[in-house]
Amino acid sequence: MAMSVFRDRDQYNCSVCLDLMKDPVTIPCGHSYCMSCIEAYWSQNQIGTTRCPQCRHEFPTRPALNKNTMLAEILEDLRTTTYESSLPALAVAYPGEVECDFCTGVKLRAVRSCLECRAAYCETHLQPHHDFPALRRHKLIVATRIPTCPRHDRLLEAFCRTDNTCICMSCVVDAHKGHDTVSSAAERDQKQVILQDHKCQFVEKRKEKEEALQDLQNAFEAHVKSAQQAVEDTQLAFSSLIASLEKSCTEAIDRIKAQLEIDKDRALGLQEQLELELAMLMGKEELIDKLLQTEDNIDFLQNFETMPSPSGDEEVPCRSLEPPISFSDASSMVSEFIENLGAFSKQTVDNMFANFHIKVGDRVRVKSSVNTPKFNWGNTVTHESVGLVKSISEETVIIDFPEHKNWKGLLSEMARVTAPDESVHIRVGDRVRVKSSVNEPTFEWGRVTHESVGVVTSVNDEILIADFPEYEAWKGLLSEMELVDINKSTGADESEPPPQQKKGKLNVKHRKYNFGKVLLGKK
Fold this sequence. Notes:
The chain is an alpha+beta fold and 523 residues long. Helix content is 41%, strand content 14%. It has helices at residues 2-5, 35-43, 69-86, 123-131, 133-136, 169-172, 184-292, 297-304, 327-352, 486-490, 499-502, 508-520; strands at residues 24-26, 32-34, 50-51, 58-59, 112-114, 119-121, 140-142, 158-160, 165-167, 181-183, 363-366, 387-393, 396-400, 407-410, 414-416, 431-434, 454-460, 463-467, 474-477, 481-483. Strands 14-13-12-11-15 form a 5-stranded antiparallel beta sheet, with no helix packed on it. A 5-stranded antiparallel beta sheet has the order 19-18-17-16-20, with no helix packed on it. Strands 6-5-7 form a 3-stranded antiparallel beta sheet. The longest helix has 109 residues, at 184-292. The protein is elongated, with a radius of gyration of 57 Å.
């Protein structure tokens, strides 16, 4: 509403001076003027009549002039609003900023403070300090609230080292008499040297942190590139593997079809041979039937000797189709190959990421890429040394090597040593025991020890159940178990095939040999 009142500023201008009315008065005709302007107009009128400058209405006598209070308030608000809108937005002091001590109404932001006057000035009110010689000698500083001594109301110009506080000159000879006092400038110079030294130290630390941050970023970028390259290599390797498997699949199918064609041709040959032999036998049957049906005894006796005999030399032995390969056996071999391929693939992937999950109880060694470990080699530890992880704390690891107990190293410098791929082939009926590298099995010992040998009764994913002499239905992880060499543990005859071969399955070595051939796509 107020803005709509002030929208047309010209309607509040005096028609005599053409500016906002000052001490506005309203004459009987209704027009308003500045009190001084209308009095001056009537005083300068040569005609001797009193009239309105705008409507020319004449008054018999000069009317009394009384101030229009309501119009005066409107004009004052209009002047204030106009002044505020004309101020630069950046010149107005906001909460928390130093205000000019001499501004009335709207407080402008102070730009300088005077130590002599102990006041803050905006650009406008600071001008006298530049114009008058007496004020030019005052010391001006950046605008701030000048602190004063609460006891003497004087500037704080000294520093008491005894009480570690700023004081005025009166305090030097009063409350702080006999104390170690110096000028604020001298104390500033001394402490500025200390502060500058602190800044240099912070700058050095900041640079070190910046270098560490840059090294971390570079290392992570290299790590990302390595991961991307690993993804590409993995995709390429598995694409080659898939292509090789597809080639082997096609070759196996072609060989099955080719063998089927050979068996088909052989079966057709046997069929023709059997049909020919069948026709010959049927012809001999007809001769015998014909002779049997004759009624002439002499004719029967004379032709009896000429009849064919079943044991004659012309008889061709019957042949049967016995394929050299059973396709059902081939299907079983393919199923076994798929099973071994899945287990081999899973174990390979697990080994790839084994180093990412080093934990207490794992067998580890120093990576071959590490020339010198951060905490040194110790006396006899080498790249070939294999130790057992004893404890892990953030990035450090404590390892018990046979050559060095409680060896300390970085986790990133260690590589996990994976045992031979024995757990993959542990099956029901195998003899197993807990690996020597396992200090505490996941499902506890029970009465079982490292020397206990048991027989596997069931295998389910990563868990097996084994019957030990000391504990039946013992539960453990496949990764914690190892196969027991039957020949070494029982002294069995080496010529006797293992249990797996007795069941009509290929042994492990034979399966691995065929697996390699299939992957390479060889015949």
